[in-house]
Amino acid sequence: MTNSTHKIIVEDLDFYYDDFQALEKVSLKAPANQVTALIGPSGCGKSTFLRTLNRMNDLIEGTQVEGKVLIDNEDIYQDDLDVVSLRKRVGMVFQDPNPFPKSIYDNVAYGPKAHGIKDKDKLDDIVEKSLKRAALWDEVHDRLDKSAIGISGGQQQRLCIARALAVNPDVILMDEPTSALDPVATAKIEELVEELKENYTIIIVTHSMQQAARISDYTAFFLTGEIVEAGPTEKIFERPEDQRTEDYITGRFG
Amino acid sequence: MQKRGKLSKFKEKAIEWFFFGNGILAIIILIGIFTLLLKEGLPTFQEVSIKEFLTSTDWNPTSYSNRSYGIVSLVYSTLLVTVGSLIFAVPLGIACAAYLAEVAHPRMREILKPTVEILAGIPSVVIGFLGIVLVGPMIAKVFNLSNGLNAINGSILLGVMALPTIISISEDAISAVPEEYKQASLALGTNEWHTLITVTLPAALSGIIAAVMLGMGRAIGETMAVLMATGNAPAFPESIFDSVRTMTATIAVELGEVPYNTTHYYSLFAIGLVLFLMTFVVNLISDLVLHKYGEGE
């Protein structure tokens, strides 16, 4: 494949928390408009890797990055890059639903407002569209002014997805978005992810191999800060090349 | 298994009662003070009508011919000085708290926060002293007044005294805002300033309000600094550059010289009662707000 179909290209990425090396020579190509799953046991660096893609690790003191991360062939770690505009393009959904203690409407409108959209009709339109895309509109359209803290965990997570969609990113990072949710809510999020990939490139960290198998097109297996194997999901799950990958997906460890 | 002896059972009960006694003591003292204020304050109204007491601006209990016991000027002065102090202390306090909680390097914070808390320990007479020799002349110079002992001087001093409370409690409230909110905001492509103003501070709002209320409680009840620095004129102030006398200063100045068991004497207790009710309401509100905050919305 050529670069043009790869939304994200990571080359030889090393990542350090102070002296601890959390990622070692990680290279990955994530195809555009597909779902890439990052799997691996706890502490293998998959969440750290995810957070290098929108530079959220910058917020942690004492971290250091070496190597290249290209999004649309642009190095996101170049010196004069505006991190704020990067995060507009690369949205993120966190492990635990974290809506703001504001109304449902204000949660979704938060990003667009921050980026200077003041027109009420325009905001209304963005809120409605985002909530519809996150498959939440039908459940909350009659109580947009109610606090987001009052809705269920699954709804909160879809609200967080809507909030991320509202700033119109092209990449969405998801950090174990269903680990705090029940099976029904999980199924809804998974269904949503499959719909969203038409318009967005999605990178999802997941603990659940079944989930990776169900929703991803491409899978990377992390182990102790390295990618052991990456490839089309089908291949990783049916014909893994590395013994460790096979051990992990057959449940022998992790 | 060995059975517990009677003695150890008794000991446990005794300890329980001891701590209960300690706890109840604070309540007994509070009730005692309140009763005393009522007992000594209420006889005022045998000679002075409650209406005159609460609505007249004339406070002149030592006049030969025409004694008057109106506390409006005193209450107004107290509120003027207090509100003035908050106008100055609240923005400064919240900004300082936000800096400590969100911006300052941990090492800087280790130095700054205890320093701010030491500020609370400066005796109010020292603050009053600074008001006379430092703040007063400065105000007189800047605003071209004959002297700087006036309401705004008191406001500045009270603001300084309320600052440690406001900073310390606001800082706790801001630090307690979940990291997830900030991360969510930053991940949406907003900068840290925007996140602070639109997410962190609103989420900490109830704690900040409680901090302001507690600072205000301190400012209303403060006596020595305002007594020294506000000029002591028990008249109705026309502006913040007039000399004023607060309720606390009035009690402090007059109680030492007043003959016992006269209406004047009783009226000072009545002022104390009104002051007590004012601080009680402020503390009650801050408590309610803090309680709501503790429950996390």
Description:
Chain A contains ten helices and ten strands. With 254 residues, chain A is of the alpha/beta class. Chain A has a single domain, classed as P-loop containing nucleotide triphosphate hydrolases (Rossmann fold, 3-Layer(aba) Sandwich), CATH 3.40.50. In chain A, strands 6-7-8-3-9-10 form a six-stranded mixed beta sheet, with helices on both faces. In chain A, strands 2-1-4-5 form a four-stranded antiparallel beta sheet, with helices on one face. In chain A, strand 9 (218-223) and strand 10 (226-232) form a beta hairpin. Chain B has 297 residues and is mainly α. Helix content of chain B is 75%, strand content 1%. Chain B is flat.
Task: Indicate the topology.
The complex is a heterodimer of chains A (254) and B (297).
Chain A: E1 6-17, E2 20-31, E3 35-39, H1 46-52, E4 63-71, E5 74-75, H2 83-89, E6 90-93, H3 104-114, H4 120-133, H5 137-140, H6 153-165, E7 171-175, H7 183-196, E8 201-205, H8 209-215, E9 218-223, E10 226-232, H9 233-238, H10 243-249
Parallel strand pairs in A: 3-8, 3-9, 6-7, 7-8
Antiparallel strand pairs in A: 1-2, 1-4, 4-5, 9-10
Helix pairs in contact in A: 3-4, 3-6, 4-6, 6-7
Chain B: H1 6-41, H2 44-47, H3 50-55, E1 59-60, E2 68-69, H4 72-103, H5 106-119, H6 124-143, H7 151-175, H8 179-187, H9 192-203, H10 205-221, H11 224-229, H12 247-255, H13 263-294
Antiparallel strand pairs in B: 1-2
